[in-house]
């Protein structure tokens, strides 16, 4: 195992990784921006280095500064968390060139799976069904021609997209051109790559994803699935595991397809294969792969008993998995609610946390970097923390999530816990047969 690692992130995920390191006896170095001098990850790490101004480009995305701190501090590996540089093959390459282990798959595999257009071809070649669609679109004329073939509604999606950005839904022919330009320019400014492809819009659909983990000795396992259909603007709000919408046969098929795909690219590390699932005909299709630790990883940890962050570090250090597929048993039910700093109209809310009460009790987990008195800067993601609960059955788990949310208090910023309570009390959600359009129904 590494003696010292650098964590190239902030917020709750930096805290999560630091905790895993402490439990494994690994020293921790963090980097931070001038806006984060008072943040929790800086306080609990063994070492903290300020690397620049508040804007991500000046700090958390500043590859050279991060790699320099890693080398200077004597760290031998870098954990990128999620977001920021976690899916950057350029960063993974820089780490490798400086003799640092990037805790994630190789830059070659990131390139292959991170380009969503190429990932579709890779999935197809591995025998995994993909959503009907196109390759990279050359221009708006080609987009119009392909739209005619695929039919409406359809989605124009950025090949470099992430976090729900760079996606446009198109309902009719005369809207193709405009949507193509919009998706392309949004992706160019957010990801530095305006390349787009097209997919048929599947509706009603579920977002179901499979967690995979591979080591450098050729072993690949899957660790159950997560239902992530509670979304607003293609961004996840609440996740649960196991998925209440799939049949045991579909579950097995999805998991096997995920393992086949991971094996076909020699996947080493933790990753997630996302599918769209149509319950009407019990079919699923590959959507994308995230080559990193996922926000909602704790629900998988609860139902499998596997610490994903520790295993992510162990496989990066060259260790062999200590369990085979047959040793993994999904038990009980887990739900995660993402608590965001936002107003009821979904505008970001910043400020100083004056009062904070975090729910507790058995199998109640709250992953956060919040503390009383912390000031939430406006430069970053609006997530305040994640509430994760576990119970033997889904019914009890839903009640437990409601009960724990009812205990959560934060004053000084607005948060979305009321919205989360509305979701948890919604009949469609409670039935378990909800789709990605649940939030639209909730507002009606
Ligand atoms: P997950 O797939 O883990 O649920 P999300 O899609 O919610 O993740 O994204 C995780 C976090 O990373 C979010 O805070 C999101 O804003 C950010 N993010 C996702 N993709 C990118 C990207 N390509 N560039 C920058 N930030 C990203
Ligand atoms: P990102 O990289 O931003 O996470 P995804 O490709 O995973 O983008 O899509 C984000 C969300 O958009 C999905 O979870 C799903 O709800 C919706 N979506 C994506 N592709 C389709 C599709 N072809 N049909 C219907 N919904 C889709
Ligand atoms: Mg996705």
Note down, in words, how this protein is organized:
This protein is of the alpha+beta class and 444 residues long. It folds into 3 domains: 4-103, 3-Layer(aba) Sandwich (Rossmann fold); 133-200, 2-Layer Sandwich (Dna Ligase, domain 1), CATH 3.30.1490; 206-442, D-amino Acid Aminotransferase, Chain A, domain 1. 34% of the residues lie in helices and 26% in strands. It has helices at 11-24, 40-44, 63-73, 89-97, 107-114, 116-125, 140-150, 176-191, 248-264, 297-304, 308-316, 394-407, 417-425, 427-431, 438-443, and strands at residues 4-7, 27-33, 47-52, 77-79, 101-102, 154-158, 167-170, 196-200, 206-214, 220-232, 235-241, 269-278, 283-290, 333-340, 351-352, 355-357, 364-368, 375-376, 383-391, 409-411. An 8-stranded antiparallel β-sheet has the order 13-12-9-10-11-14-19-17, with helices on both faces. A 5-stranded parallel β-sheet has the order 3-2-1-4-5, with helices on both faces. Strands 7-6-8 form a 3-stranded antiparallel β-sheet, with helices on one face. The chain binds adenosine-5'-diphosphate (2 copies) and magnesium ion. One adenosine-5'-diphosphate binds at residues 82-83, 87, 162-163, 191, 235-236, 290, 294-296, 381.
**According to CATH, what is the class of the largest domain?**
Alpha Beta
Terminal Cα separation, in Å? 53 Å
Amount of helix: 25-40%
Strand content is 25-35%
């Amino acid at each position: 195992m590494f003696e010292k690692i650098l964590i190239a992130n902030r917020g709750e995920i930096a805290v999560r990784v630091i905790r895993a390191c402490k439990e494994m006896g690994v020293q921790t170095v963090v980097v931070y921006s001038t806006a984060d001098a008072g943040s929790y990850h800086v306080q609990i790490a063994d070492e903290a280095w300020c690397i620049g101004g508040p804007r991500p480009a000046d700090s958390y995305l500043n590859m050279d500064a991060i790699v320099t701190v890693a080398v200077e501090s004597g760290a031998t590996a870098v954990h990128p968390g999620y977001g920021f540089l976690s899916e950057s093959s350029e960063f993974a390459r820089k780490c490798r060139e400086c003799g640092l282990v990037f805790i994630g798959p190789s830059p070659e595999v990131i390139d292959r799976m991170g380009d969503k257009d190429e990932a579709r071809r890779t999935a197809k070649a591995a025998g995994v069904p993909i959503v009907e669609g196109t390759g990279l679109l050359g221009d708006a004329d080609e987009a119009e021609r392909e739209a005619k073939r695929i039919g409406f509604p359809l989605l124009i999606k950025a090949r470099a997209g992430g976090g729900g950005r760079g996606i446009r839904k198109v309902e009719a022919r005369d809207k193709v051109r405009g949507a193509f330009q919009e998706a392309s320019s949004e992706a160019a400014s957010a990801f530095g790559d305006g390349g787009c492809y097209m997919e048929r819009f599947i509706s009603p659909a579920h977002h179901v994803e499979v967690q995979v983990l591979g080591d450098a000795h050729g072993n690949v396992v899957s660790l159950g699935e997560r239902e992530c259909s509670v979304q607003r603007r293609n961004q996840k709000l609440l996740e649960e595991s196991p998925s209440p919408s799939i049949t045991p046969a579909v579950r097995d098929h999805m998991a096997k397809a995920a393992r086949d795909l991971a094996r076909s690219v020699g996947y080493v590390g933790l990753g997630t294969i996302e599918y769209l699932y149509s319950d009407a005909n019990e079919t699923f299709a590959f959507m994308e792969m995230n080559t990193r630790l996922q926000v909602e990883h704790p629900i998988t940890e609860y139902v499998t008993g596997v610490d994903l962050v520790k295993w992510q570090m162990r496989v990066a250090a060259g260790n062999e998995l200590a369990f085979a597929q047959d040793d993994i048993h999904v038990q009980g039910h887990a739900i995660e609610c993402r608590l965001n700093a936002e107003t009821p109209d979904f505008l970001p809310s910043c400020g100083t946390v004056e009062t904070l009460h975090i729910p507790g009790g058995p199998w109640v987990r709250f992953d956060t970097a919040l503390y009383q008195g912390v000031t939430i800067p406006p430069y970053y993601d609006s997530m305040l923390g994640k509430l994760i609960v576990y119970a033997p059955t889904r019914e009890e788990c839903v009640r437990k999530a409601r009960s724990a949310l009812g205990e959560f208090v934060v004053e000084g910023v607005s948060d979305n816990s009321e919205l989360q309570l509305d979701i948890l009390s919604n009949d469609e959600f409670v039935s378990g047969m909800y789709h990605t359009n649940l939030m639209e129904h909730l507002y009606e």
